[in-house]
Amino acid sequence: MTKIGYARVSSKEQHLDRQLVALKGVDKLFTDKLSGANTKRPELQKMLAYIRDGDVVMVTELDRLGRNNHDLTQIMNTIQTKGATLDILNLPSMTGIVDPNLRQLMTNLIIELYKYQAESERKRIIERQQQGIALAKQQGKYHGRQPQYTRDDPRLQHAFKLYRAGMSDADVARKTGIKRTTFMRYRKKFKVRR
User: Fold this and answer.
1) How far apart are CA 190 and CA 147, in angstroms?
2) Distance CA 129, CA 172 (A)
3) What per-residue confidence (pLDDT) applies to 104?
């Protein structure tokens, strides 16, 4: 049995210290500094690939694994399918309940409540962010992200020239270094046609 820890914060500026202290007794530790909005986190994926039958995956709080019910359910199912168990350190301990079926039922119920809470918190974060942006726009303080390229940018103009000459979007991207989706967006924005 291996104790595997997983810690996550949402950005590079945030610190993992508190979680690392709580997980100091683990045998293997995986950490991400990325949003929990989806499961495309390198260390989470490595951790899920690493776990084996009998292992215990430990997190300080359920929302460290993810912020929406679907992703959390998928992650927990993966852990369970591999024969490992999940230990969430801030959940109440069910060790005092003698009947294993009742203990599992109570644990599952608490986890479902925490999954709902994690997803609700993610929605509140997005809502507050949108309210802040709307208010900043009203006050003239928010102008959005600056465009990556201007209409007369030489690199973009070169890309348009290659496209008009018959190159595909993918070939233009390879030749100029402009991402294909970015090029397509600017091509549509400036109505560039062959």
Assistant:
1) 13
2) 36
3) 74
Alpha-carbon separation of residue 8 from 90, 122, 177 (angstroms): 15, 15, 32
Q: How far apart are the first and last CA of the chain?
A: 62
Are residues 43 and 30 in contact, defined by beta-carbon separation less than 8 angstroms?
Answer: yes
pTM given for the model: 0.60
Residue 95's pLDDT is what?
A: 64
Q: Where are the alpha helices (DSSP H) in 15-99?
A: 17-22, 42-50, 69-81
Position 169 scores a pLDDT of 94
Q: Where along the chain do its domains lie?
A: 3-125, 154-189
- Using the predicted structure, report yes or no on whether residue 183 has a pLDDT greater than 90: yes
Instruction: Report the distance separating Cα 61 and Cα 121, nearest Å.
Output: 13
- As a whole-number percent, the residues of the chain with pLDDT over 90 amount to 56
Residue 120 known to be catalytic: no
How many other CB atoms sit within 10 Å of the CB of residue 11?
8
The residues with which 7 forms a beta bridge, in sequence order, are 31
The fold for domain 3-125 equals Rossmann fold (3.40.50)
Q: How confident is the model at residue 158 (pLDDT cuts 50, 70, 90)?
A: very high
Contact 164, 194 (CB under 8 A): yes
Q: How far, in Å, CA of 38 to CA of 130, rounded?
A: 19
